[in-house]
Amino acid sequence: MATPIRITQQWPASIWAGILILAGWLFTLPTWMEVVPQWTIMDGAYSHGFLAFGVFIWLLHHLRPELDGQPVQFSWIGAVWVLLSLAGILLGTSLLIEAVEQLAAFVLPFALVWMVLGWPVAQRLILPAGILFTAVPVWDVTSYALQSLTVAVDHFLLGFSDIDFEVNDIFVTLKGLGTFEIATGCSGLRYFLVGLVVAQLNAILYVRSWPRRLSIIGIGILFSLAANWLRVYIIILVGYYSKMESGLIRDHEAFGWVLFAVMLVIFYFVSRRLEDAPDGQPQGTPGTAAPAVVSGTALACVVLAGIVSLGLYADQRQPSSVTDAQIAPLPERMGHYSRLPIMLDPPWKPIWKGYDRLNAGAYIPAEQTPLGSVYVFDYWYINQKPGREMIQDANRFYDSYRWKLIHQDQITQPDGNLGVLVLESLREGGASEFSMGSRSEIVTTQTALPQNLPSSG
To answer: Where are the membrane-spanning stretches (predicted)?
Structure first.
């Protein structure tokens, strides 16, 4: 039997919890170094990350009396979760699956608390951990579901209006006026995550019963999503009645957050009815911390976890050979076309975001041809990270604020199909036809080889 190690009152459970969480963060520091930059993207879904982290730290301090009042004992179930977390980190880093790696890195610190201090202490950290979890960029997998839900709800709401509309996938067409695209950015993920933070914080501070806590969290999620549903619905109505001329159609970010704030006020008054519930029982008895006993087995597991974690990071975090990929320059000649020494301002170019490198060039034919000039845009994506993926909603073949799609077709070529877009300029008017070819490789995408063709009228 392992000899128990007695922790004096100068080292209560809350202090041990803080030490273990800090140790877990240090073990997974390379992963968190990739997560934190996502918090600095102000228009991203995780821009609330620093706020969530600050709230989490404050809650650790606020919950000290509850944590110190809990019995402390080693948990083998917690040890299993520690091993699962380490396995997840190893799997994620080996296969370059960031979602698995980040999820496992998030779980590890709390699994250490569960293993060393036991479930009663770990249970008190569920909601604080839930707040921090909203800042881990693994929620993008819910974007499609939230986007589909937004389309379905707004389709239902528009059915009660006198608008002549048609819904096709994620496009809402106002007949005779134009088309709205309910894109991934309109899924409401940001409102969902911030609302989840507010709801969990409310549940921690003012409610003791778990059923009522879950009710408050569910209501908070509903109000957060409702804010996005109303935002999209109102924008469509404004577009219809303003003949698509209102500035709200293009600049609706501030409007969405105003609606979200209104929903939070309503949520506050609704949640107050569930606060200080008569059936709520305190989870712990605040007061002087009792001496806690931690076994030598627990401490040995912590040390082992540290050694294994540092070892796997030293092995897995070596620079990838992908970053050494040779980026070939654009050729000086392409068939009968010669490259110009300078890049001309193209009449149209694709909107591609988050790439690591762009090679662009303009080519002119050796003799007069109806095809005109050719513009090549060579986009490279190396070691893709959140916000810098090759396939993302921000990547588009044309700027929908400048161009309107009239027609789309495809031409069969011996070396592959050639896409054709007929776009109408929203600035100058008139239609222009562009043909394009694209291809992608494992670590690069070379996309958009447009040929400016004569106007199709």
So the answer is: 12-33, 45-63, 75-97, 103-122, 191-210, 216-242, 254-270, 290-313
